[in-house]
């Protein structure tokens, strides 16, 4: 029993102190405008998660993060979009090595104000805002 408890303690402590993903200076940064944030509590389970509604380049998105406590403050954050399987080391999110061209597998690695990073997975995609610079459609006048 003591050996089992010791082994469990080692596993939990290793997970708690595991290296956090680092930002990759080679990847571009995008601005993520978080407009709504919620912390979802699943009754009877320890698998709670954080869910964001945000906008990236005029596109409405929904992002998901497990192992994050609390509610992320709305506002603008810098993030690195990770779309390659080899760029997602340290995550457990599935990104195929050979994408099919119509399914999106994207992780946004947020750069938080304290210098830490947090991975948010793209789980929802909404409409893109029309380009404000585009000319309005001509209307026919009789």
Task: Compile the SSE list and pairings.
Blueprint: H1 2-16, E1 30-40, E2 49-56, E3 59-66, E4 75-82, E5 107-111, E6 117-128
Antiparallel strand pairs: 1-2, 1-4, 2-3, 3-6, 4-5, 5-6
Task: Describe what you observe in this structure.
The chain has 142 residues and is mostly beta strands. Helix content is 11%, strand content 37%. It has one domain. A 6-stranded antiparallel beta barrel has the order 1-2-3-6-5-4. A hairpin with a 5-residue loop joins β5 and β6. The radius of gyration is 19 Å and the shape is globular. The termini are far apart.
Task: Name the strands of the widest sheet in spatial order.
Answer: 1-2-3-6-5-4
Determine the strand fraction and express it as a percent band: 35-45%
Count of distinct structural domains: 1
Question: What overall geometry do the principal axes of the alpha carbons give?
Answer: globular
The tally of beta strands, per DSSP, is: 6
H/I helix tally: 1
List low-confidence stretches. Answer: 1-19
Average pLDDT figure: 78
**Helical proportion?**
10-25%
Q: Class by helix and strand content? A: mainly beta
Q: Over all CA atoms, what is the radius of gyration?
A: 19 Å
* Major sheet description: 6 strands, antiparallel, barrel
How far the N terminus sits from the C terminus, by CA atoms, comes to 88 Å
Q: In sequence order, what are the helices and strands, one letter per element?
A: HEEEEEE
């Amino acid at each position: 029993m003591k050996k089992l408890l010791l082994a469990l303690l080692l596993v939990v402590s290793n997970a708690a102190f595991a290296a956090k993903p680092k930002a990759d200076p080679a990847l571009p940064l995008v601005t993520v405008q978080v407009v709504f944030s919620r912390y979802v509590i699943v009754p009877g389970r320890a698998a709670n998660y954080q869910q964001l509604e945000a906008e990236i380049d005029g596109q409405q998105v929904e992002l998901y993060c497990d192992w994050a406590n609390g509610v992320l403050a709305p506002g603008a954050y810098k993030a690195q979009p990770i779309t390659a399987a080899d760029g997602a080391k340290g995550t457990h999110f599935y990104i195929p090595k050979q994408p099919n061209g119509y399914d999106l597998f994207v992780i946004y690695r947020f750069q938080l104000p304290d210098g830490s990073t947090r991975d948010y997975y793209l789980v929802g995609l909404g409409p893109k805002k029309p380009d404000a610079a585009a000319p309005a459609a001509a209307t026919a006048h009789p």
